[in-house]
Every structure is written in C-alpha cells, then in structure tokens.
C-alpha cells in the first residue's frame, strides 16, 4: 500500500469544496477536476466501463475473476468537501512516528493539535499523522475514502490470482450539501447487491445506522420605523428570531449530546429589523422522536404566528435523509461479513451510529444496503482535522478482506454477531 499516501496527498490539494447555494450538481468546478483525475487513474488501472457522467459521477467496473456467482459489490466515496470551511490551498503536513504531545499546525498562528483537546490523537502514537497547516480543512472526508478504494482496487489488479467478484466503483458529487448529490445518480450504472461507503471516522469503527435528518428554514418579516417613534409600530425581525431560537431546548444541541441523543442545531442566523432568517438542523435516530421534533417546531412557529401575526413568521421544513438501519438489517450476513473483515485485519470492530449522514442513507432510500467503514481520521470539517497513514492502510485492508471473504464463500460468516447492529 505504498501508494496510498501519495494518492491522498494529491487528492487533498484539489479544492473540491461544494456549495449549498448552488442548485446544480456538481455545485463546484473543483469536483470536476478531481473526477477527471480519477477517471484517468481508473482507465490506467485497466478497469472497464469507466464513465464520467454529466453530473460528475465517476463509475468504473473491475470484472470478477472467478466463474462462480458472487455478489456485485459497490465501493463508494464522495468527491466534495464540507461547504462551511475553506479547502483552498490545502497544505497537508505529515508528522512521522508521532510520539505523543502537541502537534504544531501553524507556529506563526500558534495553532496546535493537542491531546488535551482531542484525546483520540493518542490512539495513533507511533504512527504517521497527517494534519492541516491550520488554515484550511484537510479533506480526509472523503478523499481518504477515495484513496482507500483506489488502493484496494489496485491491489486486485496487481494480484490477479486473488479471487474476487465484480466490483463497481463510484465516486459521487455534493455529498456534503443539504440536498445530497445522489439525487442525480444514474441507477442503471450501479447494478449492485450492496455498496460499501468509505466515509467513517476512527480506526475500527463501522456504521450500520445514521441520523434521521431534516432542516427548517424560518423567515421573520419585520417593520422598520424610526427608533424615536417605534413604540407599538416597529416589528424587529431580529428580536423575534432571537426569541424563537431561545425556545429550543438548551441541552438538545450538538455540543451537549452524544451517542444516540438527537438535537436541534441553529447552523445559520442572520438579518436586520426588516428581515431575519434562521437555518436549523433537526436530527434523531428514533423515527418517532424525529417526528416529535418536527412537530415541536411546527407548534412553536404556530405560537409565534398567533402572537406576532402570520405575516411575521414562515417556516419551511424539509426532510434530508433517513436512518439506513432498517434497510441494512435485512441482510445479517452482510453485517457479519463487514465485522469479520475488520477482525481479519487485526482490529476489534466498534459499532457506532453515524451522528450525521452518508451517501449510504440516500442509498437506503433506494433500497440499497450500504454499511459505512472507517477512514481512520477525526475532526472533519475544520482546521483540526487529522488522519493516520497506517489507519488508512488498515481501512484498505478491510476492503480487501471483505471482497476476498465473499469470494471464499458465505459459509465463513457464522459468528454470534450476525444480525447485531447495536
């Protein structure tokens, strides 16, 4: 796997930041640049049916090298990086054989990656840690996933004697946007039995479920009057927006929740006296509680409409994605195959819920099973993002094991963990 670091360093230097404000898919030119690089690399590897679609999906096929019928496995990662943080001019730093303590990201800015702030860093003592220089995100989410898939496919190309079934590679645009890029997926180009998404977190982690997700856009319309004559005349949209926000449960926010706890999150808030806007995320694993959260916002908005007038407040509530658990549970063999592939890599699988979404959630809506495997990184979407080279190699090995295990046969998946998600 000597090429995985080289691949990763090349990919992260391409600015693929997506843009929520752009309706078209892809939402940014940089995604085309990376897609074309990957298209060429897949052709050079000798894969078949390499296609770059009009919406910037990269597809390719590695044919099975055995005569027996095996599941067709999809391998998926996304091209874009988080819209909310800069990925222009990424300058990755490799800290060889990390020995504990603080890592210097940017001496001039006095920026450090500290175990006291991010204790998971110590899990990677002795390994090669890649960080940012403190001015951008790194882009391991999801360029590490791309590098891991490419390296796994390259392994089977380089070792034709190792049996494998048909592999369908697909790199997707705009996963990080609210709408999700899979709306533009040509399903005919993905004839698979299941998909493995490479879009997880720390080493050994695997995800079979994710948040149910929605967002609310709340618009407040005020009336501007000279402050000296404002009594009983002015309607301050900012003040009403602030009052609305203050009614959300104080302890049900991302910074106060973990595990299976859901939340509300005011991601954006802006405005003036005449017009204000709140953009609020709604998240929960339980379908029932998710619906209760949305009902709470509807009732809250209705109360404000009664208090201030229907013309003052309007809310648009939009579902984004659903928990993929109900779909993945249909195939306990797949669950055990993923767990075994991690154990075969010398790791103890850690089953965690995704406190967010992946392309797998969108695939679940299409009825496609799509477990999510770790990348080996942490602190995505910001300047403290980091990833271990050795963890990326381990993630690649997990993919190789999974593909190889299916080629050996289903009889090997017999542990007591079959069907256990949480």
Highlighted features:
alpha+beta, 8-stranded mixed sheet, 21% strand, 28% helix, 4-stranded antiparallel sheet
Whole-number radius of gyration? Answer: 23 Å
**Secondary-structure-derived class:** alpha+beta
- Tell me the helix content: 25-40%
Distance between the termini: 32 Å
- The H/E string reads HHEEEEEEEHEEEEHEEHEHHEHEEEH
Principal-axes shape call: globular
Q: What strand order characterises the main sheet? A: 1-2-8-3-9-16-10-15
Average pLDDT across residues? 94
In DSSP terms, counting alpha (H) and pi (I) runs of 4 or more, how many helices?
A: 9
User: How many strand elements?
Assistant: 18
Task: Kindly estimate the percentage of residues that lie in beta strands according to DSSP.
Answer: 15-25%
- Main sheet summary: 8 strands, mixed
Explain what the structure shows.
The two termini are 32 Å apart. The longest helix has 22 residues, at 287-308. This protein has nine helices and 18 strands. It has 422 residues and is of the alpha+beta class. Mean pLDDT is 94; it is low at 411-422. Strand 5 and strand 6 (111-113) form a beta hairpin. An eight-stranded mixed sheet has the order 1-2-8-3-9-16-10-15, sandwiched between helices. Strands 4-7-18-17 form a four-stranded antiparallel sheet. Strands 12-13-11-14 form a four-stranded antiparallel sheet.
């Amino acid at each position: 796997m000597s090429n995985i670091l080289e691949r990763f360093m090349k990919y992260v230097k391409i600015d693929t930041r997506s843009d929520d404000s752009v309706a078209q898919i892809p939402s940014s030119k940089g995604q085309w640049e990376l897609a074309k690089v990957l298209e060429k690399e897949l052709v050079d590897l000798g894969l078949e049916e390499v296609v770059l679609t009009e919406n910037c999906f990269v597809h390719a096929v590695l044919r099975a090298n055995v005569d027996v019928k095996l599941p067709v496995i999809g391998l998926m990662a996304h091209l874009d990086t988080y819209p909310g943080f800069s990925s222009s001019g990424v300058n990755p730093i490799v800290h060889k054989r990390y020995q504990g303590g603080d890592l210097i990201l940017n001496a001039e800015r006095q920026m450090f990656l500290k175990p006291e702030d991010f204790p998971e860093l110590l899990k990677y003592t002795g390994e090669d840690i890649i960080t940012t220089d403190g001015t951008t995100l790194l882009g391991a989410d999801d360029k590490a996933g791309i590098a891991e898939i490419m390296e796994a496919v390259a392994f089977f190309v380089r070792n034709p004697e190792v049996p494998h079934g048909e592999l369908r590679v697909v790199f997707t645009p705009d996963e990080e946007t609210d709408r999700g890029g899979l709306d533009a997926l040509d399903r005919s180009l993905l004839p698979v039995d299941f998909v493995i998404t490479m879009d997880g977190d720390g080493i050994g982690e695997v995800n079979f479920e994710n948040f149910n997700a929605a967002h609310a856009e709340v618009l407040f319309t005020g009336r501007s009057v000279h402050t000296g004559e404002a009594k009983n005349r002015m309607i301050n949209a900012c003040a009403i927006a602030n009052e609305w926000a203050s009614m959300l449960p104080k302890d049900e926010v991302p910074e106060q929740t973990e595990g299976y706890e859901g939340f509300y999150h005011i991601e954006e808030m802006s405005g003036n006296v005449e017009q204000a806007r709140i953009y609020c995320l709604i998240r929960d694993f339980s379908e029932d509680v998710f619906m209760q959260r949305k009902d709470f916002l509807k009732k809250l908005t209705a109360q404000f409409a009664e208090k201030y007038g229907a013309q003052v407040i309007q809310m648009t509530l939009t579902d984004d994605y659903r928990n993929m658990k109900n779909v993945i549970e249909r195939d306990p063999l797949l669950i055990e195959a993923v767990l075994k592939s991690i154990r075969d890599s010398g790791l103890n699988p850690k089953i965690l819920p995704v406190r967010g979404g992946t392309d797998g959630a969108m695939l679940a809506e299409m009825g496609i099973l799509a477990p999510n495997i770790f990348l080996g990184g942490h602190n995505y979407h910001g300047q403290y993002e980091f990833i271990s080279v050795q963890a990326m190699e381990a993630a690649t090995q997990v993919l190789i094991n999974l593909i190889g295990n299916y080629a050996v046969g289903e009889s090997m998946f017999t542990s007591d963990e079959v069907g256990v998600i949480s």
